[in-house]
Amino acid sequence: MSVNDSLLVIVLAQAVLYGTPLLYAALGELLAERSGVLNLGVQGMMLFGAAVGFWVTQRVDGSGAVLFLAVVVSALAGGTLAAIHAFLVITLRANQIVSGLALTIFAGGLGLSAYLGTELGLAELPAIHQFSELDVLGLGDLPVVGPILFDQSALVYASWALTLLVALYLGRTRWGLNVRAVGEAPASADAMGVNVTLYRYVHVVVGGAFSGVAGACYSLSITPGWTAGDTLVGGAGWIAIALVIFAFWRADLCLVGAYLFGALSALPFALQAREVDVTPEFLYALPYVMTIIVLVLVSTGLSRRRLGAPAALGVPYVREER
Amino acid sequence: MKLERRLTQPRWLSVAVPVGSLIVAFAIMGVVLALTGHSPGDTYRKILEAGFTGNGAMSATLISATPILFTGLAAAAAFRMQLFNIGAEGQLYLGAVGASWIALQLGDRDATSTPLFVVAMCAAAAVLGALWALIPGVLRAFARTNEIITSLMLNYVAGLLLTYLIFDSSSYWRDTSTLQARAFPQGKPMPEASNWSTFGTSVVVPLGFLIGILTAFVLWVLYTRMRFGFEVGVIADSPRAARYAGMRTRRKILSVMALSGAIAGIGGASQIGDFTHTLDGSPTGLQAAAFGYTGIVVAALARYNPFAVCLVAVLIGGLQNAGYTLQGPDFPSGLVGVMQGIILFCALGGELLLRYRVRIARVRAGKPVAEGAT
After folding, report:
1. I want to staple B72 with a disulfide (CB 3.0 to 4.6 A). Which of A261, A317, B20, B309 is the partner?
2. What residues does B4 pair with on adjacent strands?
3. Looking at this predicted complex, what is its ipTM?
4. Which CATH class is domain A3-321?
């Protein structure tokens, strides 16, 4: 048995696969939160993106282009939903927590996604197109790093580029500086001539688009197809929101966190494939329990200094009332 | 157009705005229905009949309304203190686990008095629900961990626990008496005496619903007539002022979380006692209905007022009941969730009119037009 068939390498390779949607969703949430808007609708946007993306692959012919189109449409779908949230919390100054929950209820496994799924009969359709692994430069056979890094789908490689892009954007560009200002001190940003409302709208909508792509990762790559309810995505949308907190609102740490939780999600399937006798519920509960534990560690360990949360997170900005 | 903060809220507005939001929501939904090729008028008439006016519809609606009445009250109790307990779902499961345990125990001891069963089941459910809610509560109070995410994660854990108890273990709750039950895992049936009574003939009111209304009353007294509620209000509006006034915020977080969890837990007891009479661990059982999440819709629509929660629970319960009855090609599943979402969006948007006065300033004469109404 070669080293690439060992349990560790398989779990790590799967960790990247399962971590990718978490990464997309966390990066999206990061953008929204950095501009000062909390969006708890990630789960809903993911499910809707998954449903819409899968539908596109059913309706259009041609393989490579279709997948690209499907991802674009998923992104549009996520962005559209995020725009509802943006309108409610930015223009109508609604409570961000309740509005985000409303978005998840509206779009989630018992709402719009289920509605679309049954209207279009998605659940009965077999997956025609799906992302396949691209063996980069024939490096996929390298021991250990091959399967983990060089034998993944295009969605994975794109997510690395996106992480880099978001990190550079927030840390190294004028616009990124403005975003951070809008999230930390909107009144000062406003005085500087930054359009707070516009910045918030753009980042919430773009963030939602990332969540839509995250959904497409499930329906086009991890488990191609559509299943009714929450089962396709599990609790990934919520874990992604928690990830932003673990990552101290930094893009690079989102990547690390996503793969950690990707590994926890992949573990049950890898062990079952090896016919290891462990109670499955215990393994399935692992990512959720770990989320709680890591969240507690992060919040106690750093309670004395600020966690890196944008100061104006969750607070509507009203120029007259600052 | 300008928004001005209201200094006082007229009383009529706090009724007019939610009602107006509902009307707007149904109008938007009508457009969605028309766009997807369903006749809005027809659909609404069917919903009204299947949910409220039809033969036996009201009885069925109360069955749907009972659990979301409890989870709605649970959410309202916590949200009032800006404590976002999204874990009513899991707390309800744990309540069901506790209630079924005590009912089976009493059954083993040949208890036959239904009132004893009701009290014991509610108590066990409240304790387990409260303990489950105290996990995020303690973490929030002592480690300042975000309770939204922890309470939500515990919903998934509670769901897996249910599945484990019935499907993947030989637990006390699982029925292993017959060959069929061993092949197709199911919960033990509850003893006969643990079936809660119902009231009324033309409209059958389950006991759980009445307990829910009683709970709403207790909650109202607690939050509007007692110091407890006053302190909750102060902590919600200004944590700093509360601290200067010497209020014990930590203790309050713990008690509010426990209260919220206990109420959701009793909802689980009512599921066992009123309706299912067994612990259903399958993904299509207790876990499928998303009572906890619907409870948030109910609480937000009721603006966290316990009596309004009762009313809204019946309304949303009717909508859900109509959804189950009508499910089919004309009424795809998911439609009810979409409706709930739109109603909630409109209610949230309407809040603006409660807090602000809309003035439309003309270019020259700044005379105020259009005030208040939705």
Report:
1. B309
2. B357
3. 0.88
4. mainly alpha
